[in-house]
Design a protein that fits this description.
The structure is a single chain. The protein is α/β, with parallel strands linked by helices. It has 19 helices and 13 strands. The strands form 4 sheets. Strands 2-1-7-8-9 form a 5-stranded parallel sheet. A 4-stranded parallel sheet has the order 4-3-5-6, with helices on both faces. A hairpin with a 3-residue loop joins strand 11 and strand 12. The structure holds iron/sulfur cluster.
Length: 383
């Protein structure tokens, strides 16, 4: 299949692996964070870490929208769904994420809440049209990739005159999270778990372009290489990062030229700007409160903002203290460090979002990596 098969060529992958082995300076370590959970899964699915020298370490980032949603927001969604007038529409991954008190959207549904799994926000709009006597709320989560469709359905709801549709917005922003990682105590303590460079996200960058990553190169002296999701994309991006680091360069480079430009999808960005504004701050699981890191619905569309339309009291949330998701999302632990991994926490019995989500690091380790002896040690254990 064009644009797929040629990026999965085994011989080429081994050639790039040889080039990486030659380029990697044996006298140093390379700690490269793949921000995106889709990249984490591709690395495990194709066993790419096994093709890398032992001094090239992939650190998993927080680019999993289900994983970074704080429990308090999920609790609010469950509270909303328990309103008998409400139909809550959610992506499937969210349904099994543990909330406070060992509950979940799935459990709320089992006890009577009307919660529908949807594959797109357009489906939620259709449900609103089909059930005019119900309040239909779309539980919107995701990075910049999923924000434009949410903006479009909000505008469509206005055009259609749908009075019973609203959105609970939890859309978050990639560059703000990268900044938070670089400014976290772990990164600022020299010699601890400092990340040398980033494999930049693919889907997000098709929307925002690669210009927003330029401050990480200029101000933080961290190279960023945008990569596609295929194994050769990732191997090539890793080689490009190693070459930059060897040459003392810190630039934004684009491996994913077939889909990403410097300025991204301007039309999509305009749609988002028409409907959303920056929140002054937003709580992320694992990363804490990050300024200007999420989007809320503009006042012009407040009638479609579930946070304006419904009372959503914030109650104290209860995280599972034994779950290491927060440290994993910051890249300072890996799933094998969690004592619950495979020991009470599996995809069938998830104790944290990182095991539920199709982009979660724990799910990647479980689905692709558990049979193999991991070649990854935690950053902490290697220092
Ligand atoms: S293995 Fe389960 S409990 Fe442990 S960090 Fe991952 S999701 Fe959380």
């Amino acid at each position: 299949m064009k644009l797929i098969d040629e990026f999965r060529d085994r011989d080429l992958a081994h050639k790039i692996a040889t080039a990486i082995a030659r380029a990697a300076d044996t006298g140093r370590r390379y700690r490269l964070m793949e921000f995106c959970g889709g990249h984490t899964h591709a690395i495990f699915r194709y066993a790419l870490q096994d093709l890398l020298p032992s001094n090239v370490e992939m650190v998993h980032g927080p680019g999993c929208p289900v994983c970074v949603l704080p429990v308090a927001r999920l609790d609010s969604a469950i509270d909303l769904a328990r309103n008998p007038d409400v139909i809550l529409c959610s992506y499937g991954d969210m349904l099994r994420v543990p909330a406070s008190g060992r509950t979940s959207l799935l459990q709320a549904r089992a006890t009577g809440a009307d919660i529908r799994m949807v594959y797109s926000c357009t489906e939620a709009l259709k449900i609103a049209s089909d059930y005019p006597d119900k309040e239909v709320v779309f539980f919107a989560i995701g990075f910049e990739t999923t924000t434009p469709p949410t903006a479009v359905v909000i505008q469509q709801a206005v055009q259609l005159g749908l009075k019973n549709f609203s959105v609970f917005s939890n859309h978050v922003l990639t560059p703000a999270a990268m900044t938070a990682i670089l400014e976290s105590p772990e990164q600022c303590q020299a010699g601890s778990v400092a990340i040398d460079g980033f494999v930049g996200p693919a889907h997000v960058s098709t929307v925002i372009g690669y210009r927003p990553y330029e401050p990480f190169a200029k101000d933080y002296h961290k190279p960023v290489v945008i990569a596609g999701f295929e194994p050769l994309d990732l191997m090539q991006a890793i080689l490009m990062l190693i070459r930059q680091l060897n040459e003392g360069r810190h630039q934004v480079e684009n491996e994913y030229t077939r889909a990403v430009s410097r300025d991204g999808n301007i039309k999509a960005q305009q749609r988002v700007a028409e409907v959303f504004v920056l929140r002054s701050e937003f709580e992320w699981r694992g990363l804490g409160t990050i300024p200007n890191s999420a989007l809320q619905i503009r006042s012009a569309y407040s009638a479609l903002d579930a946070e304006q339309r419904f009372e959503l009291p914030v109650r104290p949330s209860q995280e599972n203290k034994a779950c290491d998701c927060p440290a994993i999302l910051r890249g300072v632990k890996n799933p094998r460090d969690c004592r619950l991994f495979g020991n009470g926490c599996t995809p069938e019995t998830p104790q944290g979002a990182c095991m539920v989500s199709s982009e979660g690091a724990c799910a990647a380790y479980w689905n692709y990596g558990r049979a193999r002896q991991s070649s990854q040690a935690t950053p902490e254990s290697k220092t």
